[in-house]
Amino acid sequence: MKPAEILSEARALLDDAIQLRRRIHRHPEIGLTLPRTQAAVLEALDALGLETRTGQRTTSVLARLAGGKPGPTILLRADMDALPLREETGLPFASEVEGAMHACGHDAHVAMLVGAARVLVRRRADLAGSVLFMFQPGEEGYHGARVMLDEGLLDGAGAPSGAFALHVTHREAAGVITTRPGPMLASGDTIQITVRGKGGHASAPHDCLDPIPVACEIVQAFQTLVTRRVNVFDPAVITIGKITAGTTRNVIPETAHLLGTVRTVSEVTRERVLEGIRRVADGIATAHGAEAAVELIRGYPVTSNDASFAGFVLDSAREVLGAERVTPMSTRSWAARTSPTCCSACRARWRTSARVPTAARCTRTTPTGCSSTRRRWPRASPCTSRWRCASSSAAARSEPPRGRPPADRIVVRPRLWGPVAQVDRAAVS
Ligand SMILES: [Zn+2]
Fold it and tell me: How far is the CA of 100 from the centre of ligand 1 (A)?
């Protein structure tokens, strides 16, 4: 199959993709329960003759396309959920739901994945292996992928051996695909520390145990922890973003509270830093006769792309779109929140996979799509980190087993003329 033919087929589906995207955009839904979005997906897939399955605890949709030839299963993933924002774009297809908006582009992702399904169904006879289309609710911090994993996403015969996902972004020029091998998105864990001393009058600190200087010392020590105990080539970030203590000028409080985040790009460093945070906080508090209650809340893990998959995506994109539209990603993102979609199970399977399965070549038809529309954010362009959730489906999770993490991710921009469902930004927005 020549790339030009696939592009031509995809372009023929453009209007359908736009209509589906706008339908979903009008009715954004947040979290794990997205009945209208699920209904739109099922309706769009209805005529394709795919084996479909819906989630029990979420409104997820899984659809399987069995190819005409034997081969592995590759998973293609799109997230489905919206954000809790009020849309003020004034677009004719703007959100009709107060306080909800598809501002992260997931409506486009759904339409793009349906487009990929439509193109691949037409080529069922030539397809070596199967394609599993994964429509995932609850990407925006609701761990929707985890629910799907718990419900058997990667279990049983025909489980996927790799996965691809994509996300629109404004960080690249329109029509450009970018990705990178290895760690791509940092882990994001939360630090909560309560330093407990003994309150009293500010004029007699010797009769008290002031928790504030202890808390300050802990914050300072964290910076030393990062620079002295972490490999500079496998870096970490610790930021305490909030300190609260006390009520007025002349009272020493009982407690001081620290709230922060830690970001890493490897599981090794992640564990080292988390352990170090606890040790440093405990040690400093103890040294001053205080107590430190440390709570470390684990967020999404590091997202790490399989090197061969990343290379495969870039090579395929060059072949289909031209080298001028493909850019290897040079930097990682410290904005985690990526979804740990298929991670652990898929990673395990990759341990046994020596090379990219043949069927994976079909996935080169998926890096297509459009951007979300104009939007107004309550703060300065948080969308800069949006592609963090570009999260690869099966991807996610760091600590690549013997250097072979699963899956891949790609990031696309509006007006990307991909082979499956090219969506022109102007037409979409
Ligand atoms: Zn997103």
Answer: 14
Work out the number of other CB atoms within 10 angstroms of the CB of residue 354: 9
183, 303 contact by CB (below 8 A): yes
Q: CA 88 to CA 375: how far, in whole Å? A: 7
Looking from the CA of 320 toward its CB, the CA atoms found within 13 Å total: 31
Please name which of 63, 180, 162, 60 lies closest in space to residue 120, comparing C-alpha atoms: 63
CA of 335 to the centre of ligand 1 (A): 12
Task: Check: CB of residue 238 under 8 Å from CB of residue 226.
Answer: yes
pLDDT averaged over 10-residue windows placed end to end, the chain, 429 residues: 82 95 98 98 96 96 96 96 95 97 96 97 94 96 92 90 90 87 91 98 97 98 97 96 97 98 96 98 98 95 91 91 88 52 30 27 27 32 30 33 37 33 36
Q: How far apart are the CA of 91 and the centre of ligand 1, in A? A: 20
| 287: Cα within 13 Å, side-chain hemisphere | 11
Q: At the topology level of CATH, where does 3-181+306-424 sit?
A: Aminopeptidase (3.40.630)
Q: What is the per-residue pLDDT for 53?
A: 95
For the segment(s) 186-300, the CATH number from 2.60.40.1080, 3.30.70.360, 3.10.450.710, 2.60.40.10 is 3.30.70.360
Nearest to 67 by CA among 112, 118, 121: 121
- Ligand 1 centre to CA of 108 (Å) is 10
How many C-beta neighbours within 10 Å does residue 72 have?
Answer: 19
Q: What's the 166 CA to ligand 1 centre distance in angstroms?
A: 9
- Candidates 307, 225, 311, 308; CA nearest to 264 is 225
Ligand 1 geometric centre to CA of 109 (Å): 9
Q: How many whole angstroms from 107 Cα to the centroid of ligand 1?
A: 10
> How many whole angstroms from 167 Cα to the centroid of ligand 1?
7
What are the residue ranges spanned by the domains of the chain? 3-181+306-424, 186-300
CA distance 100 to 178: 29
What is the 369 CA–ligand 1 centroid distance (Å)?
13
Q: For tokens 């990929």, what's the residue?
A: 116
CA of 332 to the centre of ligand 1 (A): 16
Q: Determine the distance separating the centroid of ligand 1 and the alpha carbon of 131, expressed in angstroms.
A: 22
Q: Token digits for 345?
A: 């199970």
How many A from CA of 203 to the centre of ligand 1?
A: 52
